[in-house]
Specification:
The chain is built from 5 helices and 6 strands; from the N terminus they run βββαβαβααβα. By secondary structure, it is α/β, with parallel strands linked by helices. The termini are far apart.
């Protein structure tokens, strides 16, 4: 059964709500929430589920812009994810709300432009400190800090971007996992 939009606190919601009771709360944020951030959300959800932490970590994604609110992930995103065993078919794009900083532990951006926007939206220095680039967690990466936006490209770039997101997500998980493990034991 497909879910339609819900109203949460009077605001239209196209995504699963953030589980504020989770031990750790993370939101992946890209430009439109139809390419990179849904990829990262799907990859990270599978990482935490595979490791038995799906009850302890809440993962969402959002956009800095409102162009695609309510839309599904880009078909090329869904295809790239499905080819590697991930599912993003239920995804609906939503825009990041600055009020969300208070309920999040980590806000992950994919390029320096998004990082700048999110830090500008952060209401406090503590909230600005929650914003990081995904690739900053991957010491084995190519050295390029930005994950390219594949939207105006072909399926091959979607696969390349997914590879970067998988590698960086695994690196992020390795850094978070000791604290998560300690919090759930």
């Amino acid at each position: 059964m497909k879910e339609g939009p819900r109203r949460d606190n009077g605001v239209m919601s196209f995504d699963r709500p953030l589980d504020e009771s989770a031990l750790f709360r993370i939101c992946f944020v890209c430009t439109g929430n139809i390419c990179r951030s849904p990829m990262a959300e799907a990859v990270f959800r599978k990482l935490i589920a595979t490791n038995g932490y799906d009850h302890a970590v809440s993962v969402t994604s959002a956009a800095t812009g409102d162009w695609h609110v309510g839309e599904r992930a880009d078909p090329r995103t869904i295809a790239a994810l499905e080819s590697r065993g991930y599912d993003a078919t239920a995804h609906r794009a939503r825009q990041f709300e600055p009020e969300s900083f208070g309920t999040l532990d980590l806000v992950i951006a994919f390029d320096r432009g998004q990082e700048r926007i999110l830090r500008e939206w952060a209401p406090s220095e503590a909230d600005r400190a929650k914003v990081h680039l995904l690739t900053a967690f991957d010491s084995d990466g190519s050295g390029n800090m930005d994950v390219p936006d594949p939207y105006y490209s072909d399926a091959a770039l979607f696969d390349t971007v997914l590879t970067t997101i998988e590698r960086s997500s695994r690196a992020l998980f390795r850094q978070l996992e000791p604290g998560i493990r300690q919090g759930v034991s």
